[in-house]
Design brief:
Elements (H helix, E strand, L loop, with lengths): L1 H17 L5 E5 H5 L7 E8 L2 E8 L2 E9 L3 E2 L3 E5 L28 E7 L5 E7 L10 E3 L5
Parallel strand pairs: 1-8, 6-9
Antiparallel strand pairs: 2-3, 3-4, 4-5, 6-7, 7-8
Length: 147
């Protein structure tokens, strides 16, 4: 029991030390993955600083999502869902535009993102249409913007 309590305290301390998320960066996972979504296997999506982002593709759908840090190893990934399109479909990055300009009316389509926190404290989101995810509902929590 003491070991479990200590482990929970340690995890809380690590989460607190990491601090709050500074900003959200939204990317079109579909555009970054491109034609790789048509072939099975582990596909690298991009490198972001010391992070290597990859997805497991099975039957034309995302079956898993992984982020590996060059020195720290595996990075925790969260799964989000929303009815708002959070990334541009053409894959253009919107670093210069505030997130609010990307928010669009509910299109009836559900979007799913995989996200992680980078070394600068920014949460990086990779958005896919719900239909592109093998099991879109499992583990997905509602996305809430920072503002």
């Amino acid at each position: 029991m003491v070991v479990i309590t200590f482990a929970m305290f340690l995890l809380a301390a690590v989460a607190f030390a990491a601090g709050p998320v500074k900003k959200h960066e939204h990317k079109s996972g579909h555009a970054l993955l491109g034609a790789n979504l048509k072939t099975d296997g582990t596909k690298q999506i991009e490198r972001h600083g010391k992070h290597s982002v990859s997805a497991d593709v099975k039957g034309g759908k995302i079956a898993g999502f992984h982020v590996q840090h060059d020195t720290k190893g595996s990075v925790p990934v969260k799964k989000y869902k929303t009815h708002r399109k959070m990334a541009l479909l053409d894959g253009a990055r919107s670093d210069s535009a505030p997130v609010d300009t990307q928010l669009q009316a509910d299109l009836g389509t559900e979007w799913v993102a995989y996200a992680y926190v980078d070394d600068d404290g920014n949460e990086e989101y990779y958005w896919f249409a719900y239909e592109e995810i093998l099991d879109g509902d499992t583990g997905a929590i509602d996305y809430v913007p920072l503002n």
